[in-house]
Automatic annotation (TrEMBL):
Domain Glycoside hydrolase family 29 N-terminal residue range list: 53-366
Pfam family membership, one: Alpha_L_fucos
UniProt keyword terms in alphabetical order: Glycosidase, Hydrolase, Signal
EC number: 3.2.1.51
Native organism taxonomy: Bacteria, Pseudomonadati, Verrucomicrobiota, Verrucomicrobiia, Verrucomicrobiales
Name assigned to this protein: alpha-L-fucosidase
Length: 456
């Protein structure tokens, strides 16, 4: 397969992202991560086949995941030389125009004195997530494991923690699934190229980089136990985007290496989808997509990595985040909430403030999310429906102004109806497709859930 890669490689004379970090940026604004949202609203379904195997069904049933962006950039927290750097914290090398020689010194500061993988996993499980995705290598190229293929990794840092191994073991011990994020882009590797190659030298360099990437992916899938899938990022550079056969070849090799692996569409070069559409970054679809999909969401406006000041507007509340989760499930999609741990390895208190109330709600109402699919009903604004077997769950984020709630378009007659309250499930009267005699106020300040049993 390496020979196939050599025949496909494109490359760049000099990566513009590396130039931005070392020499300053001209033209495009690289201080903001715009994300990868291609094809999210108008996908080309040519050649896409919906998987029905147990691994993919488990991915669907999970519905709620947790993303973790963590690396040496977490030490800086969005600041350089005492000043805040605009844009996403994990892009600070570019946004802050930090010379590589200076940025690389962060490895020696990566002590992780407050890292506790078991606590991370327990906190995430209490939030209600069923799977975890962590950045094994972001665009800066730093590897969160001791790779045999580079010294720019955690093995060169002072910490004694084997972060990926400890976290993967802890996540599985909590009953969750482990996924790994991997960046195709690598600002640190000398052989990485961003634009199409025009010379034999650049083509050869990019071929070497693809071999390096493939070797690292093999490490990730063989050295850390049962990793359920990979979450790729950074396919927008021309070296990858303009040559879809590279992504197709990589996907085929990964499926041979690990049968049943779950792969998002970013392994592909925008030409088609793999197992699901991951293009909903910091947004949700307007209507239910035609294929499997996943949305990933930040808590602050636009930073995945830890940011000390959370600059900008759009800091989301627990209710806003929970409504995004419910809306996703109501459109048969998955929702992944991102957190950015601090450079010392502890969780950001502002993240925890949002995780905890979501977890309390999920403990009582998780059955209305896990293993469900969306159901298109005619409902009042701020109300959504999910379904599993003979049960329909009505989520009321906006409580009715009267004591009635119409639920039009049900797949059958209502057999029974209950409303979850602080004292448990309470029976609710109904006539036809209208719920009656509702309490004056919502029993849950986040989302009040009705469970309708439908006659078969």
């Amino acid at each position: 397969m390496f020979h196939l890669f050599r025949s496909l490689v494109p490359a760049l004379l000099v990566s513009p992202l590396l130039m931005a970090a070392d020499e300053g940026t001209k033209g495009a604004d690289l201080t903001k991560s715009k994300g990868d949202t291609a094809n999210s609203e108008t996908p080309d379904l040519k050649g896409w086949v919906r998987r029905t195997d147990p691994a993919m069904e488990k991915w669907r049933d999970n519905r709620f995941g947790c993303f973790i962006h963590f690396g040496t950039y977490s030490i800086l927290g969005g600041q350089w030389n005492g000043k805040e750097v605009p844009g996403a914290a994990e892009w600070i090398k570019v946004g802050g125009r930090i010379p590589s020689a200076e940025y690389d010194k962060l490895v020696k500061q990566f002590t992780l004195e407050n890292f506790d993988a078991k606590k991370w996993a327990a906190d995430i499980r209490r939030m209600g997530a069923k799977y975890v995705i962590i950045t094994t290598k972001h665009h800066d190229g730093f590897c969160l494991w001791d790779s045999k293929l580079t010294d720019y990794d955690i093995g060169s840092s002072p910490t004694k923690h084997a972060v990926l191994k400890e976290l993967a073991d802890a996540v599985r011990a909590e009953g969750m699934d482990m996924y790994f994020y991997y960046s195709i882009i690598d600002w640190h590797h000398p052989d990485y190229r961003a634009a199409d190659p025009k010379t034999p030298e650049d083509q050869a360099a990019y071929a070497r980089y693809l071999e390096f990437m493939k070797g690292q992916l093999k490490e990730l899938l063989t050295d850390f136990g049962d990793i359920k899938g990979l979450w790729f990022d950074g396919r927008w550079d021309a070296s990858y985007k303009n040559h879809p056969d590279i992504g197709k070849g990589l996907e085929a090799w990964l499926r041979e290496l690990k049968p049943g692996i779950v792969l998002g569409d970013r392994v592909r070069a925008y030409d088609s989808f793999a197992d699901y559409n991951s293009g909903y970054e910091r947004k949700l679809p307007k209507t239910q997509p035609l294929l499997d999909w996943e949305a990933c969401m930040t808590i602050p406006e636009n930073s995945w990595g830890y940011h000390k000041t959370w600059s900008g507007v759009g800091r989301k509340t627990p209710k806003t985040l929970l409504e995004m989760l419910v809306r996703s499930a109501a459109m048969s999609g998955n929702f992944v909430l991102n957190i950015g741990p601090k450079g010392d390895g502890s969780f950001n208190e502002k993240d925890v403030e949002r995780m905890e109330p979501i977890g309390v709600w999920m403990k009582s109402n998780g059955a209305s999310i896990y293993g469900t699919e969306g159901l298109a009903l005619t409902l009042p604004a701020g109300t959504y429906a999910t379904r599993k077997d003979d049960k329909v769950f009505i989520h009321a984020f906006q409580w009715p102004e009267t004591d009635k709630l119409p639920v039009k378009g049900l797949p059958g007659k209502i057999k029974s109806c209950t409303l979850m309250t602080k004292d448990g499930a309470k029976s609710i009267r109904f006539e036809g497709e209208t719920l009656l005699d509702l309490p004056l106020t919502a029993p849950d300040v986040l989302d009040s859930v009705f469970t309708l049993e439908i006659e078969k």
